[in-house]
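User: Sorry, folds how?
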Amino acid sequence: MIQKPADTAQPIEKVMAERWSGRAYDPTVMVTLEEITALCEAARWSPSCFGDEPWRYLVCDKNTDESAWKKVLSALVPGNQEWAKNAPVLIVTASVPNFSQNDKPNRWSGYDTGAASISLCLQATAMGLMSHQMGDLMTKCYVSLSIFLLISTFGLLLLSDTRLH
């Protein structure tokens, strides 16, 4: 496994120190459906205002839906496409801005989505996967993926297996 632990001023939990946003991915190694499901489950158990869970993840797995994966990849700025093209999983991170029970604005939706995303990333680290969060999705992502304007898109998570094979 690739390891690049953080040099912290005080000791922190191992999974937090080992989480890092690498850009070197092995394009031949896929992330399994079971692993993707576990990551989504970690996000699902994150805290949120009134338990509303406003986060939405559009999981694009190159192994199972290369067309969707290519659409997301093409929505990145060209410099990031160069290295992101090797990540087997691209996840669009979005948030519903209104509460589901009353349709009133949820000013905490971005905060809650961030909490869910870091939970997903820490779970990835614990499983020997690497995650990298980005915020450079271009506007064409909304069109090419038919993302409704009712949803705020925050960014992208890239996932890859870092275990030695």
